[in-house]
Amino acid sequence: MFDFNEKTVLITGASYGLGEQFAYAFADAGADLVLTARSEDLLQNVADSCRTKGREVTAVTGDVSIEDDVRAVVTAGIDAHGKLDVLINNAGIADMRGLAPEHFDSETFNQIISVDLVGAFYYARECGRHMLENSSGSIVNIGSILGNGGSENGVIAYSAAKGGLRNMTLQLGSEWADRGVRVNSVSPGFIVTEMTRIALEAMGIDKWIASRTPMRRVGESHEVTNAVMFLASDLASYITGVDLLVDGGTNASNGTFQIPPIHHEWNVEAPMVSSPYEPVQPRPDWYQALEAGVPGVHYPLPE
Ligand code: NAD
Fold first, then answer.
1. 223 burial level (CB within 10 Å; 0-12, 13-18, 19+)
2. What's the 278 CA to ligand 1 centre distance in angstroms?
3. pTM to 2 decimals?
4. Where are the domains of the chain?
5. Residue 250 in this model has a pLDDT that exceeds 50
6. What kind of fold does domain 8-252 have according to CATH?
7. SS in 3 state form for 132-178?
8. Could you say which of 16, 122, 123, 158 is catalytic?
């Protein structure tokens, strides 16, 4: 579908999860790659797999929240490939403890902002400066549905970081639009990766989420990849400052997301939305037990 021959694509957080899938997809589409993450071994494995597809790959370890690391990765990429055409700001962390905002600790809040928002800014600034010199480039930030509105999920830091990233996308898209550099973001719904596997698979939340998603399922990584590659490519040449939701309709149904549609209860014989219409999944058993809060994790916390 996409042609990235002659293009160099820098991907952060490329050692596993969505970033790894992006690396393989861009390699299959002909791109040379600059890959970065913190763990050398995992990163080299991904780089080697991309090389077997015939691509030039530079793999440099680094932490996106450390400015010197970011400069080193970008410099190494430009030195090795002569230019950077695309940046995928993918590296991110989340916090699954479900802490209420009034109890959320400063250390974790700052850490999540540093990686998910500030790290993405460091990369956008360093790559952006280079792209502006060439009057050409495309940046795709990986946001989240949780950056597109509020929820009751106990994710204050993640939601603040991804909301900030979304608006940074609009801001950079505006600031660089007349100098050849496009900046967009993709906001996925729930996808099974290492970040979400425990919650989605081990705890059974996937069925709960699916039943409250208009498409009645969680997403798959290739569905995010397709959106990322489209925005990164020249096919999106007149698109900048856009946040593209890849969420099975979740954001379109915002507000009813956590509420079972009432006609499931009283109009079972004549579904109003479509037919057949998957029933709302019951909450997992453990969910009812935890409804009042997780002692020591949800409120009230011990003094
Ligand atoms: P993941 O935990 O499976 O992978 C995260 C990647 O980021 C890994 O390669 C990790 O090494 C890297 N990383 C983390 N901290 C880093 C740091 N400080 N410096 C450098 N690299 C770092 O997560 P994922 O699900 O693949 O998430 C990828 C992106 O997609 C994230 O920005 C995440 O917030 C976003 N996202 C994921 C989902 C989902 O359901 N999986 C939904 C919405 C958004």
1. middle
2. 31
3. 0.89
4. 8-252
5. yes
6. Rossmann fold (3.40.50)
7. HHHCCEEEEEECCHHHCCCCCCCCHHHHHHHHHHHHHHHHHHHHHHH
8. 158
